[in-house]
Amino acid sequence: MIEGVHAIVFGQDAEAARAFFRDVLGLSGVDAGGGWLIFALPPAEVAVHPTDGEPVHELYLMCKDVHATRAELQTKGVEFVEPVTDQGWGLVTRLKVPGGGDIGLYEPRHPSPLPNFG
């Protein structure tokens, strides 16, 4: 029934955000027309968390070693907006997407349905 996920990152400078995903993160993609890039993502998982406030949705990139990935991304000029913290379920930090706010980066410490992380 469900065969994929299409995530959307909104930004005030979509061109800068697209260049970041293409050039810094190295994601491959296609031009859907007029320079509108759509990127392929690695396998994904989705979790549903309870909240007492308004529901929000977040995007986290996953890696096997958050400290090594952070160091590698910093050599490419990526700005991190939070230190790495241990949340129990994983080691988490946040990085700035030029023109597109910030997103999470984490090293999972929980069981995962993904073969590379399970």
UniProtKB/TrEMBL annotation:
Keywords: Dioxygenase, Oxidoreductase. Gene3D superfamilies: 2,3-Dihydroxybiphenyl 1,2-Dioxygenase, domain 1. GO terms for molecular function: dioxygenase activity. Residues 1-108 form the VOC domain. Coiled coil: none annotated. SUPFAM superfamilies: Glyoxalase/Bleomycin resistance protein/Dihydroxybiphenyl dioxygenase. It comes from the Bacteria. Pfam families: Glyoxalase. This is Extradiol dioxygenase. It comes from Lentzea tibetensis.
